[in-house]
Amino acid sequence: MKVSFSDYAWGAGLATDLVNTSPLVWKSAGEMLPGTDDLATFLDEHGMPGATPTGADLRQVRRLRDDLRTVLEAGTEDETAAGANALINRATTTPVLERDSERRWQWYLTTPTGAPLTDRLALATGTGLLGTLRTLGHARFRPCASPTCDGVFVDTSRAGRRRYCMPELCGNRVNVARHRARKQSGDPRTGDSAVHHR
């Protein structure tokens, strides 16, 4: 596996999504990676196709997920950098300078052929987190703003205004709850209780 320092958004997104598969995030949903097939699907959906994880891989990935959460929740830039560097060190790799598909020089980290799945995941996520920290800053590492979610995320968006670990789920649930609360209170912004005059 080869990971570019320039493509930090992919690795940071992978870290965010992996952390938020934990049963600690949405307690009602439980474990989002209950079996090896679920892990294989997750990897395929996140640009790491072809893996056939074993039970041992699944256990190691769950431990990695806990380590990633610690890095995402780190209180300082230095703690975040140290945690992300430790992830990369698991893969026992060194940086190489190579040309990309457009013939530009890029820094890459690679894992040896046949490296364990968790080493490849640690490399991808650690590189993504370091790239985000260097390029966008520590303020982009955040807890989810939903009151019913314990997720964490890395905001690599251009505007930097993301509030939810899973916008399509957490953000939508918050909006639905607000709409219902307005509806129950008779708030005219819902359109249900508005008085129409001729």
Question: Would you write up a description of this structure?
Answer:
With about 200 residues, this protein is mostly helical. It is about 45% helix and about 10% strand. The protein has helices at about 10-20, 35-45, 55-70, 75-90, 115-135, 165-185, and strands spanning about 1-5, 95-100, 105-110, 140-145, 150-155. It is globular. The termini are far apart. The relative contact order is 0.17. Mean pLDDT is about 85; it is low at about 190-198.
Question: N-to-C terminal Cα separation, in Å?
Answer: 68 Å
Q: What would you call the shape?
A: globular
The whole-number mean of residue pLDDT values reads 87
N-to-C SSE series? Answer: EHHHHEEHEEH
Q: What is the strand tally?
A: 5
* Rg: 20 Å
- Could you list the spans in which at least 5 consecutive residues all have pLDDT below 50? 192-198
What characterizes the major β-sheet? 3 strands, antiparallel
Strand order of the largest sheet: 1-3-2
Measured by DSSP, the beta-strand proportion falls in 5-15%
Return the structural class.
Answer: mainly alpha
Summed up, the helix count is 6
Helix content: 40-55%
